[in-house]
Every structure is written in C-alpha cells, then in structure tokens.
Amino acid sequence: MQKNKFENLFILDMANNHYGDLIHAKKIVKSFSKVQKKYKLKATIKFQFRELPDFVHKDYRDKKIKYVRRFLDTKLSDENFFKLFKFIKKNKFLTSCTPFDEKSVDKIEKFGFDYLKVASVSALDFNLHERVVRNNIPKIISTGGISLDDIDKIVSFYSKKKQNFAIMHCVSVYPTRNEDLNLKFIKNLKKRYDNIPIGWSTHEDPNEMLPGALALTLGATIFEKHIGIRSKKYPINKYSITQDNFEKWLINFNKAKLMIGKSDKNIFKDEIITINNLSRGVFAKKNLKKNTILNKNNVFFAIPLLKNQLASQELKTNTILDKDILKDKPIYKKNVTQDKSLLKKFKVRSYLHKAKAMLNYNKIKVGESFSLEVSHHKGIENFEKIGCFLFNIVNKAYAKKLIVMLPNQKHPSHFHKSKSETFIMLAGSLKLIDGKDKYNLSPGDRVDLKKSSWHEFRAGKNGCIFEEISTRSLKKDSFYKNKIIKKMDRDERKTYIKNWFGLVGTVKY
C-alpha cells in the first residue's frame, strides 16, 4: 500500500458549487489556487460525476425534489468538465472525482483522475464497488452514516481486491454540529485498521477552525473541505468554505501541526543549559583520600553544577576516588572510577527498557511464565548491533519463544541439529537468509526452517518481534559459523534476567 499517496492530502470538493457554469467553476479553482501555492499544499480539486439525466428516474425528473432539482439544474457537460479538469491541472492541483454510478467510473478512467472518492451514500453499494475496483486509481471511501461492522466489510473488500485505499471518518449532516463531530472515532479507526490511512471528511460550519487541528492530533492524514466562492449570482451553502476562511483554517491547522511535532522526544540545547543550571554537583563533605568509595556519608550535593563536575544523578554505587579531595571541594568526573560491572548492569537494564517499550508499543503481553535470555554474541557492549532478546515461554515436546530485536540488530549465522522451527512475524520487519532463500518478513508472515539449515537474520529500521514455534529447544543445539562465537561457552554469550518486571533485581552474568 502506497501510504504516501494519502499523506497530508487536502481534498477540496467543488461538488455542485460550479452551478453548471464553467466560468464560475474556474473562478473557484483560481481563488483556491492562491492558497494552494502560498502554503505549498498537496491538494486535489474534487468533482462529482452523475450520468444525467439517467441518474434520476424519468418519472421524477420534473418533480420538486431537493436533490433531483439540484443535480439537474447544475448539470455541467462532459466537454466543460474536461475543460475544467485541464484547468485544474494547469493550476498545479491534483484531481479527484466521486462517481455515483457505474458509467461515471468509465468517465473517471477516461479523464485520468489521480484519485477516486466513494461517497458515504455509496459506501455499502457493492454493485458500484465492484466497478470501482476494476482500475488501479487510489481510492478514498467516506463512511458517514454506516456502522463499524459495515466499515469492516468495506476494508475487507478493498483489501481482498488489493486496492490502494484510505478510509474517511465522516458525519453526513450538512452542516454538522460540533457535538456531532465525534472526532475521537478517528483514533478508533487508526487502531482497528493500523495499515490503512485514515482521513476526516468535514461538514462543520466554515467558521469553525478547531476540528481540522483536532483531527490531525488524532491521526488523520487526509482532510476534505467543501469549497465555493461568494457571488451575486450563486449562493454558497452553509458547509462550504471560502478562500479567506480556508486560509484562516489552514493557518490554525499548521499552527497545530507545528505544536504537535513528532513522536520522537526532542531535547533542546536551551533545556540542557536550564537543567544544568538547576542540577546539583557532588562535593566532598570532609577531606577524602584516594581510593575512597563515595557515598552520602562523605559527599553532599549542592548547586551550582560546575563544568565537568560529577552530578548528583551520576553518582553510582562503588564509585571510587582517584585522588585526594579537600573538604567542600567539587569532585570532577575525571577524579573518579566507576564499577564496570555495575555500568554493565545499567547498560543491560537500558536494553531491557527498550524491549519493554517495543512490546508496549505493539500491545504484546508476555505474562509472567517465562525465562528471559539476552543473547550477545560479540559482547554486551555490542549488543545493539548483534544479539536479541529470547523470551522462553514453553519448552516441552514443543517450544515457543518470543524474540525481540532492536532496530537493525543482527543475529549471526547458525543452525540447529535437533530443532526444526517456524518464525511468525508479529511486529516490525525482518530480513532472513535461510540457506539460499532470502525473505523480507512483515507482520503476519511465516517461514518454516528445517533442521541443520544455516540461517541468519537482521531486524528492520524499527526493530521486530516474532514468535518462534519449534520442537523441543535444547541448550547445546545452536552451532555458529563465526569461529570466535563457535568457541564461546553458551553462558559467555548469554545474560539471564531474573527480574524482568521490576528491572531492579539480580542480573546474572
């Protein structure tokens, strides 16, 4: 799925606001192109196609039915639609269109639109869907007025047809009251369909500036607005936005985007300066001799923290002085040696915190009945490059392990004489080499590995989590290709974790 097709996409729906007047339609395009160019938007102008007059039953074409009259009275010829289509492209917009019948899909394909948008009214019309999926145009489906169970059906249908598509949360009330927007539902859709882009098709009062920004914070990546211009000749409806209001909406939207930032933690230079100015340094409580082990009985903490001074948060157990220090004098980092075994333990704990985070991010629970090994084939100091976490959950006639790997972490080439195994991907990505076969694995993928088959694997840029289902796992059944690893005792390349839940208990080396 090409998610980037739907990233930061603005759909500007002209609908019937052209009033069947090509000149008026071009004025709308020209008006919004100023905003599009100013803010460098990835934006599409959207048409709506109906095969008129056949779309309306012949017995009702002269009736005073609201939508019948609107559609027939604002009809734009195919020739003028194509002129407008070319004008939109000339103004550097992408193009999109909603078909309300099968013949309109033919026209969309003939024109060569960039996107095809299925309206909420057609969301459960699988007769139309069957025609829509007969092309490779990216699809966007609105879901106003239909249940979550029905959205499941749509997602299943488009997934089965291998379509590149997105889903729009939509409330089909024109205009929509604030209390009816139900924007939190976007978050629900994001969780339910984690591999499908989700958008917000909006019909609120054009003077409301907040909903778009809120939709953004909840994970929407596509934003649809109905557009029009004020004119003495043609009225503008209560849910269509003008150029001026759209620019105000966009300014508010971009401000929210700036404030939201990224999911990664940013640490700024000014923060570090402020924190250092408020942090406490380590000072000698009395005259201290070389080789003294520092503790709260012989040091005290106070501000200011001097340059290169040991900070209170950096003082660990078994920190030893390398020189004499007089009472009340600062203790600098260069004046101390810290216990390497303790530093190693802290390093292992930092790795464990990363593993916990990966499991939490992916909502994977390991329970309490397991043993945990940290495999580090080239030493704990190189663990982030080579190794993995092994959660041993079941080991009977059959065995189950959960394997967690950090970003780009590699597991070296090896084989098992007694064990055959199956890898089932749960999260992230994995590159696996099994003999002459190469695999790029994603969540849901499965690979069967035979006994005595040389295999190695590397996690993708976001790491990975996968299950290993196998015959009984034996301690001395891993045989490595690398000569150095081959000579190592099993316990040399393993750290056994005894307190996973608290991460404060004994770590056995």
Give an overview in words.
There is one protein chain. The chain is α/β, with parallel strands linked by helices and 509 residues long. The chain folds into 3 domains: 258 residues, Aldolase class I (TIM Barrel, Alpha-Beta Barrel), CATH 3.20.20.70; 70 residues, Alpha-Beta Complex (Type Iii Antifreeze Protein Isoform Hplc 12); 166 residues, Jelly Rolls (Sandwich). Helix content is 27%, strand content 26%. It is built from 12 helices and 24 strands. Strands 14, 15, 16, 17, 18, 19, 20, 21, 22, 23 and 24 form an 11-stranded antiparallel sheet that branches. An 8-stranded parallel barrel has the order 1-2-3-4-5-6-7-8, surrounded by 5 helices. The longest helix has 22 residues. The radius of gyration is 32 Å and the shape is flat.
What are the salient characteristics of this protein?
single chain, 509 residues, alpha/beta, TIM Barrel, Type Iii Antifreeze Protein Isoform Hplc 12, Jelly Rolls, 11-stranded antiparallel β-sheet, 24 strands
